[in-house]
Every structure is written in structure tokens, then in C-alpha cells.
Amino acid sequence: MRILDATIRVMAGGLAFLSIPAVAHEAGVSVPTIYRHFGSKGALIAAVYPHIVRHLGREDVVLPRSTDEFRGWARAMFARMDSVGDIARVAMASPAADETRRVTMPQRFARIRELADALAPNLTSVDRDRFARLLVILTSSSAQRMWRDPLGSPVDEAIDDLDWVVRAMIASASGHGR
């Protein structure tokens, strides 16, 4: 959607520039058009993350059912992140994106909780919740950027690291690492 793409471009400029009039100008629409579609600045911001997820096709990727399938899923996540343009990447790293993440976190956590349940079905509910919270962080676009940009890790090395961390967490929580 043109308005959401314009929002991403404006977000990339920084939080100070994110306003309904700035988005309207960037999208080539009127301010009332944005309010008609989204109702508020908060609703517009909340729509950005799902828009990026749809664009990346992340919602189409089937969650792995075991640790053996995890590497393929992680590879698909890295590939989708690599397909994001620079503007979207900057927007996703901006302070304005923090609000989007906060608003969408319940849905994201529910999906990652499914992943935690599949990878470690025998954990206690407390450990499974802890594992899910860590998975949210480890599988986030921010973590992927950290593996790839400052660390300079190639995809295979980043996936090896991620797989190792996931297996170590499961073993520790299961009592094998204590």
C-alpha cells in the first residue's frame, strides 16, 4: 500500500519527521485520506510492521516442527531479511519502529510461543515462556542485523550460532545442561 510504503520512507528519516502530514506528502495523498484509512497516527504506525512482514513473506513461512527443521526456517528468515530494501531496513531500526514493535508484540509473541512449543514441547510452562521470550529476541530483525552487520557473519555462520544457542537453551532448560 502506497501510504504504508511512504510511512516507511518517512520513518527512515527519523522520529522527528514522522507525522501524518509528512506521510501524506510522501504518499501523494491528502491528510484526510490517511485518517480515513488508519484513523490515527498510532494505527498507522501499528500497520507498518504487518505491512513489512507481508512484504517479506514472513507470515507465509511455516514454523518448524522440530529442532531439525529449525535451520531451514532460520535460513528463510535471513533470506527474507536480506531482501528488505535499505529504506525499510533503516525504518525498522528507527525509534519510530519501537512503537510498532510494542503494538504488534502480542501477535509476534503468540507465534514465537508456537515455535517454542514445537522446539521444546517438554519444558515446564515457566521455562517455555522464558524460551519463547529469548526466541523473540534471537529471531528478531535486530538480532539478524547484529549477526550480519557489526559481526560480519556470513549467513551459514549466523545460522550455526542461532541453532547452537537454541539447542543449548533447550538442553539447559531440560536439565541436560545443568
Note down, in words, how this protein is organized.
The chain has 178 residues and is mostly helical. It has 2 domains: 2-48, Arc Repressor Mutant, subunit A, CATH 1.10.10.60; 62-173, no CATH class. It is built from 10 helices and no strands. The chain has helices spanning 2-12, 20-27, 31-38, 41-56, 67-82, 86-93, 95-119, 125-138, 141-148, 155-173. Helix 4 packs across helix 7 (95-119). It is elongated.
H/E series: HHHHHHHHHH
Share of β-strand residues: under 5%
Contiguous helical run count: 10
Mean pLDDT score? 84
Report how far the terminal alpha carbons are from each other: 50 Å
Number of strands: 0
Estimated radius of gyration? 18 Å
Main β sheet profile? none
Give the total of domains. Answer: 2
Structural class comes to: mainly alpha
General form: elongated
Unreliable runs, pLDDT <50, ≥5 residues?
Answer: none
Helicity, as a percent range:
over 70%
Oligomer: single chain
Topology record:
Blueprint lengths: L1 H11 L7 H8 L3 H8 L2 H16 L10 H16 L3 H8 L1 H25 L5 H14 L2 H8 L6 H19 L5
Helix pairs in contact: 1-2, 1-4, 1-6, 2-3, 3-4, 4-7, 5-10, 7-8, 8-10
In short:
With about 180 residues, the chain is mainly α.
What would the keywords be for this entry?
mainly alpha, 178 residues, Arc Repressor Mutant, subunit A
